[in-house]
UniProtKB/TrEMBL annotation:
Pathway: Carbohydrate metabolism; erythritol degradation; Carbohydrate biosynthesis; gluconeogenesis; Carbohydrate degradation; glycolysis; D-glyceraldehyde 3-phosphate from glycerone phosphate: step 1/1. Pfam families: TIM. This is Triosephosphate isomerase. The gene is tpiA. The active site is at 99 (electrophile), 171 (proton acceptor).
Length: 254
């Protein structure tokens, strides 16, 4: 039985005041839920990582990174970047890689995404590998091939043994921040294809790995998504900025 995992991606939002208020509200909200089979994680902007780690210390909510430097694992002359080692030293346990916004606005290729995965793994941080098709690719009937290709590209570089420690997040690009959610059946079809792709390398890894759904998940649609066999949680954007909404999503996963 796979545990459920709910990850909030705060993206580039928040001020010192609002981030503090959100972390405090989450800390009491999630605590009251007394989650048993669900893990909750938040990924603040990196400038707030240390503060959020401190604010959430002693709660069950873990902290993750939204992005990580590809060029070096520890330190070096890479202005503006934050290394996997730096996130690890702050206590981060998860790191997003390959989010569609990074692929689109920063031109991140599968090769770069694979390097970032490897850096996070080297620092004992669980990479959350985001994959997903565009609307044009879905309309062309290519969704399953595109997504399986993105997953396979990473396995080919880091190896299937390492992939056991990776979480996959299926995020159809057309459903991110649009209010348009994939139907539970559409999401399930892709999640099953991802598991089948991984099973082509190793069936035990395929069965154990967590596959999250992301794309306009909110309190109102979470339960029906989590009821699907291969959906093991959610990567939440907009709704993660509202502590109450995030708690409803976490509760729906129990
Ligand atoms: C995301 O950015 O990962 C995401 C899923 O955003 P939203 O929930 O706002 O669609």
């Amino acid at each position: 039985m796979r545990r459920k995992l709910i990850i909030g991606n705060w993206k580039m939002n928040g001020s010192p005041q609002s981030v503090t208020a959100l972390a405090e509200d989450l800390s009491s909200g999630v605590n009251n839920l007394m989650l048993g089979s669900v893990d909750a994680v938040v990924c603040p902007p990196s400038v707030y990582t240390a503060a959020v780690v401190e604010l959430l210390a002693g709660t069950s909510i873990q902290v993750g990174a939204q992005n990580v430097c590809a060029e070096a694992l520890e330190s070096g002359a890479f202005t503006g970047e934050v290394s996997a080692q730096m996130f690890a030293q702050l206590g981060c346990k998860f790191g997003l890689v390959g989010h569609s916004e990074r692929r689109e606005y920063y031109g991140e290729s599968d090769a770069v995404v694979a390097t970032k995965c490897a850096h996070l793994l080297a620092q004992n941080i669980t990479p959350v590998l985001c994959v997903g098709e565009s609307l044009a690719q879905r309309d062309a009937g290519d969704a399953l091939d595109v997504v399986s290709g993105q997953v396979a590209a990473i396995i080919e570089v880091i190896g299937i043994a390492q992939f056991l420690s990776v979480v996959v997040a299926y995020e159809p690009v057309w459903a991110i921040g649009t209010g348009r959610t994939a139907s539970p059946q559409q999401a399930q079809e892709v999640h099953a294809a991802i598991r089948q792709c991984v099973a082509g390398y190793d069936s035990v890894t395929a069965e154990r790995m967590q596959i999250l759904y992301g794309g306009s998940v909110k309190g109102a649609n979470a339960a029906e998504l989590f009821a699907m066999e291969d959906i093991d949680g959610a990567l939440v954007g907009g709704a993660a900025l509202d502590a109450e909404e995030f708690c409803v999503i976490c509760k729906s996963a129990e």
